[in-house]
Protein 1
Amino acid sequence: MASQKTYLDTSGLYCLLVPGDARHPRAVGVMQEARRIFYTTDWVIGETVNLLTARHRAHLAQGFLRHLEGSSGLQIIYGSRELFEEAKALLLKYDDHPFSFTDCVSFAVMRSLKIKDALTSDRHFKVMGFEVLLN
């Protein structure tokens, strides 16, 4: 069976990193599926760290950042001028939806890499035609 590309969004990473979250078991289960290749962006990493810190879980944010240093199982897509412009175009095109800029960066990356699955609970991904793995 071919590997399946899976995008890690902020809400998915939060569920994965916080054991007390109701969706934590499902998030862990998805991460343990051997056939998946995981992708995220530096934007999502920053947003996840901010969320953990804001919710008084800075220790989890620090552990998460340390884990990323040695992780070979996650491809991080770093921002570029082109990615910024694609995200801006999406945000302006879908001005009737309350997408965050980080969401639009994620949508642009997913389209470019032909990723269909997102480890997220964010319904905006479903609106854009992606499969939301944490319902």
Note: DSSP finds seven helices and five strands in the chain.
Protein 2
Amino acid sequence: MSEIYGTYEFKHFANKGKIEKIKEVLKEYRKTYLWMEFFRNGGRLPHKKKISVKHIQSKLSERYKYVCLWQVYGILESYISNLQRQFANVVWN
């Protein structure tokens, strides 16, 4: 079974200044080291209690960096779970 992915263009009413702020936050968000750490460590996530963002140089506040970190953590947990499910389907089918 093949999957089809698509995108849709959504109209927004953000002015140029707001769009630039969003781009700035996105740039800082991508500095969240967990992405690189995940792939460097062979897809293993560190324990949540051992993660710190204090060393990440960013214009974002500590609280905002943690929000980004936990969002990335959730995305990666979901990614791992989906891979496990796909693997089980291949094995059992």
Note: Residues 19 and 75 are 24 Å apart (CA to CA).
